[in-house]
Amino acid sequence: MSGHTHPCCKIGPSILCADLSCLADECRKMIHSGADYLHLDVMDGHFVPNLTFGHPIVKCLRPKMPDIYFDMHMMVQNPERWVESMADAGANQYTFHVEACEDIPALCRKIQESGMRVGVGLKPGTPVETILPYSDLFDVVLIMTVEPGFGGQSFMEDMMSKVQYLRTNFPYLDIEVDGGVGPNTIDVVAEAGANMIVSGTAITGASDPSQVIALLRNSVENAIQKSQLER
């Protein structure tokens, strides 16, 4: 998994929750509000019952924000099919779902060779043990705290046991959490050990997104500091 440096806090707004009719402006607004990266949800209507956008959108966004980290959450069947297209479009991280992949090592190698960081996502019903045999192949593990593809769900606090397990066993790993994360749920996420925080409407729908991002960051950084003192 990731190198031997303690993971730092990174906040990534989910742009699917923004106004897609002026996407570049919304993305810039998120970065100016203090976001560390942008989380882009790609859904194919098969792996999840929803359809969003693909690599052409990413390719259009990239020249408008050349230095921004694009985290692609690939909620798609046959994730190996889109690796080259996303790399060519300018994606930085390619997070596939373990449930959609038949050959995890081959896909991880393909992503690495394309120059992107490797992320693996777990649906709520997928045990964390599923990915342990391949633990040295990932840069990021994404723990879903809602069922992917459905909006308006409540945060699943019982998923924090997965985060705690990963943080205990892989102290240097980037652990990302996505689904229902906002000011009301961030403390439990931070205390479990997540350091990459995906948040949708809590940020994009806020009157002052920078205030929400600062609140999320403060919670995670406090938890990281506390855990390092306890070691």
From TrEMBL:
Keyword set includes Nucleotide-binding: no
Gene Ontology molecular-function annotations: D-ribulose-phosphate 3-epimerase activity; metal ion binding
Catalytic activity: D-ribulose 5-phosphate = D-xylulose 5-phosphate
Gene behind this protein: EOG090X0CAY
Ligand binding (substrate): 14, 73, 149-152, 180, 200-201
PANTHER family in UniProt: RIBULOSE-5-PHOSPHATE-3-EPIMERASE
Keyword annotations: Carbohydrate metabolism, Cobalt, Isomerase, Manganese, Metal-binding, Zinc
Enzyme class (EC, first level): isomerase
Cofactor: a divalent metal cation; Fe(2+); Co(2+); Zn(2+)
Protein residues bound to a divalent metal cation: 39, 41, 73, 178
CDD domains hit by this protein: RPE (cd00429)
GO biological process: carbohydrate metabolic process; pentose-phosphate shunt
Bound cofactor: record note: Binds 1 divalent metal cation per subunit.
Source organism phylogeny: Eukaryota, Metazoa, Ecdysozoa, Arthropoda, Crustacea
Entry's EC annotation: 5.1.3.1
This protein's name: Ribulose-phosphate 3-epimerase
Pfam families on file: Ribul_P_3_epim
Protein family: Belongs to the ribulose-phosphate 3-epimerase family.
